[in-house]
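Chain X:
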Amino acid sequence: MENLKWMNDARLQHIPATKLNFLQKLVFDTNHISDKEKLPFLLALANKAQKEKMQFTKDETFLIIDVLKDYSTKEELQKIDQILNIFHEK
């Protein structure tokens, strides 16, 4: 995703910016770091979310996924689907 237009989508106006920023980093910012750096990055991100007691409701989750898909490239859609499949397996 070249820009952050998805975060300004009117459908997301009731979701706190901290949650949207967290997702931006989780899904898209990991593209720019090496595989060796991903685990420490993800652990730090998870730790920050835990400290801030960040949780997503089911409604927020489904809405965010729909919005992300509207703004994603084909490759990004594949990555989103991979992430969703991991969570569905658990």
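Chain Y:
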Amino acid sequence: MAISKDKKQALVSELAELFASAKGTAVAKYQGISVADLQALRKAARQNSVTIKVVKNRLVRVAMGSNDTYKSADTGALVGQLLYAFSSDDEVMAAKTLDEFAKTHPELELIAGFSGEGLALAAADVQALAGLPSKNQLIAEVVAQLLSPVHDVTNALSGNLHALLDGVEAKAAA
């Protein structure tokens, strides 16, 4: 069923806003995935602050053309039935969400992506992004590294204190 011109314009403006605010966008083929599975993907994406859109590639090209950042991006990979995952919070979360879903649904295939700077990414680049830790995981690792010396000093002092108490106890018993 054809959609009206007003609906197409609304979709293009919505896509343009998503591209403008996106730090990372992942694109995947979804042919052969049931509607129930797509709904599960959308639910998982919402939990990760990722927006999933299934729209015609031509409308995506129009939306990208209206954005100065994405105007010159290569859209040659945008062929066939595709879904687009946008993440405005984290550069890797869109790719990571689709990759996690693809592990249990091999019909979903990552084919391309776009960085927040408007660069087109190949499937291998998107796959590599999906393997990176999320922003929150990186922050947790940095905090753990910063706290490591504090824990080491505490453990060392604790060990010396126990040895001192053992020595005092041995002296008192003798």
